[in-house]
Amino acid sequence: MSQFQKRIFVAGHRGMVGSAIVRCLVDQGYSNIISRSHSELDLTDQAQVRAFFAEEKPQEVYVAAAKVGGIHANNTYPAEFIYSNLMVEANVIHEAWRNGVGKLLFLGSSCIYPRLAAQPMAEDALLTGKLEPTNEAYAIAKIAGIKLCESYNRQYGCDFRSVMPTNLYGPGDNYHPENSHVLPAMIRRFHEAKLADAPAVVIWGTGSPKREFLYVDDMARACVHVMDLSRETYAAHTEVTTSHLNVGTGEDLSIAELASLVSEVVGYQGEIRYDTSKPDGTPRKLLDISRIRELGWKPEVSLRDGVARAYEDFRSEELVPS
């Protein structure tokens, strides 16, 4: 069997990241991709996951399924975020081991790092300080996923890997006005303000926090790149206790600068105001991506180009009138 015929299960294939991974795999020639919708397979249900793995016997697994959201959603529904994410990763990783999966890639998040971690945040900053309170439940679940992979590698000799993406955006994003991440929320807000000829758009917080953004198809390429590495090469660039790799651009900008960029791309001409009664979240979240760069990957899509593509995707989905 050629490597392009391997049975690959992409958990969360309908989400923004999972669908990008599927696109990347198809573009590279992989033809045996296994997927299930939530109605077909509830990944929080241990019995369903066990039956699925026993029947399908995937050879590689991408764990892109997750419950995600912005500050408001994380702060409002912490029980849902920690429960859903813990159950999904525990069920999928455990059954991958039980069924002899050759390689697994777990996708985490840059919010795993301490709120006041030194910038840029290197992989070994994990568990060196307190987390950001507004998304602590989600972060703890993602840290548990990393440690699950490390533990199964140590005890059973598995080849389970982890990547920690920065803030992602692009086709398939969630543009909900309250529960989405900052960039898609801005795209929707500025678009609606342009249509309504609104005099101002209000942004949460002070505008001073700095964030890093990565186009989702760049992230997908990174995922496939990391999975294609030999076990020896991956191990040489990670450590036993920090076995994950950061994935980002290595560049960030303030929320105020992001708002200006999005308003320009959308074509909104009004004023941008800031509601300082709302939380800022972590002051800065910039990833040190030196390890994955050493492994031969780098981002290709600039932020301005990526925002323009995301805006076109938003309008094409007819989420709101254009």
Please describe what this structure looks like:
It is a single chain. With 322 residues, the chain is α/β, with parallel strands linked by helices. The protein has a domain at 3-170 and 213-249 and 286-300: Rossmann fold, CATH 3.40.50. It contains eleven helices and 13 strands. The strands form four sheets. A six-stranded parallel sheet has the order 2-1-3-4-5-10, sandwiched between helices. Strands 11-8-13 form a three-stranded mixed sheet. Helix 6 (182-196) packs across helix 11 (303-316) and helix 9 crosses helix 11 (303-316). The protein is globular and about 60 Å long. It starts with 7 loop residues before the first strand and ends in a 6-residue tail after the last helix. The mean pLDDT is 93.
Which helices and strands appear, and what pairs or packs with what?
Blueprint: E1 8-11, H1 16-27, E2 33-34, H2 46-56, E3 60-63, H3 71-76, H4 78-98, E4 103-107, H5 136-156, E5 160-165, E6 167-169, H6 182-196, E7 200-204, E8 210-211, E9 213-215, H7 216-228, H8 231-236, E10 244-247, E11 253-254, H9 255-266, E12 271-275, E13 284-285, H10 290-294, H11 303-316
Parallel strand pairs: 1-2, 1-3, 3-4, 4-5, 5-10, 6-9, 7-12, 8-13
Antiparallel strand pairs: 8-11
Helix pairs in contact: 1-7, 2-4, 4-5, 6-9, 6-11, 9-11
How would you describe this structure in keywords?
11 helices; 322 residues; 15% strand; 6-stranded parallel β-sheet; globular; alpha/beta; Rossmann fold
Task: Provide a concise account of the structure shown.
With 322 residues, this protein is α/β, with parallel strands linked by helices. The chain contains eleven helices and 13 strands.
